[in-house]
Amino acid sequence: MKKLILITALLTSALFAQVKEKIEVPYVAFPIKMGKGFDAIQTNCLMCHSFGYIINQGRQSKKFWHGKVMKMVDHFKAPMDEQAIKETTNYLFEHYGNGKLK
Ligand code: HEC
After folding, report:
1. pLDDT digit string (tens) for 32-48?
2. Which residues make Cβ contacts (< 8 Å) with residue 64, sequence separation at least 6?
């Protein structure tokens, strides 16, 4: 029993570890384009991650963006209905599209 208490104390003590120096976490802003459909992006995408993922894809086709939105819905369970899927896909293609549908 004493051993158990000792082990627990040792393990939990790490949770109270402190660092003397000031830690600065860099702030990275991802400027997203404003415009029609931005509301949908803010409502449906920002709840899980920053806009960085979107911006880092570069200009892509409508099929690509629709695929990404569907990936978020199917794999990561983004709570989006048909309307939200349409609005976000249109926004992405309009602002981060390459003009090609496929
Ligand atoms: C339920 C949470 C959730 C929501 C909502 C969500 N995403 Fe994601 N998304 C993720 C996760 C988790 C990853 C990281 C996947 C990885 O690291 O492999 C990701 C990654 C991405 C990527 C990187 C490329 C890729 O294929 O992984 C893109 C682009 C992206 N999301 C776009 C969007 C867009 C656009 C929306 C809004 C329509 C959105 N996400 C909403 C969870 C979400």
Report:
1. 999 999 999 999 999 99
2. 57
